[in-house]
């Protein structure tokens, strides 16, 4: 009986975390918080990091896809719709073309 109650508590806690993550997003990365994550995922941060670690950034381009996550529209938006939405709402990711710095 006690084991069953413990499992039910774990399930409820999991649902609560999932709900909290959808209402107030949590960080995706290994460090920082929701606010600093905006900087850590920025073009500026990554270009500086690549250059500091011996890479030349040839170009940076948006990936042309808009992401909504699982809570908002999820699988109901096909790739074509995501491409069109990215033109107005922005791309979810950037693509970096890098070459090793030979200097």
Number of spatially distinct domains: 2
Overall pLDDT level: 80
| Helical content class | 40-55%
Distance between the termini: 68 Å
Q: Provide the spatial order of strands within the biggest beta sheet.
A: 1-2
What is the number of helical segments per DSSP (H or I, 4+ residues)? 4
Whole-angstrom Rg = 19 Å
**Oligomeric state, counting identical vs distinct chains:** single chain
Structural class: alpha+beta
What low-confidence regions span 5 or more consecutive residues with pLDDT below 50? Answer: none
Principal-axis shape equals flat
Largest sheet data? 2 strands, antiparallel
Helix-strand string = HHHEHE
- The strand count comes to 2
Give the amount of beta strand, in percent: 5-15%
Describe it for me?
The protein has 103 residues and is an alpha+beta fold. 49% of the residues lie in helices and 15% in strands. The protein folds into 2 domains: 1-32, no CATH class; 42-103, no CATH class. It has helices at 2-23, 34-40, 43-52, 79-89, and strands spanning 55-62, 94-100. The protein is flat, with a radius of gyration of 19 Å. The mean pLDDT is 80.
Topology of helices and strands:
Elements: H1 2-23, H2 34-40, H3 43-52, E1 55-62, H4 79-89, E2 94-100
Antiparallel strand pairs: 1-2
Quick structural summary:
The chain has helices at 2-23, 34-40, 43-52, 79-89; strands at residues 55-62, 94-100. The protein is an alpha+beta fold and 103 residues long.
Features:
single chain, alpha+beta, 15% strand, 103 residues, 2 strands, 49% helix, two-stranded antiparallel sheet
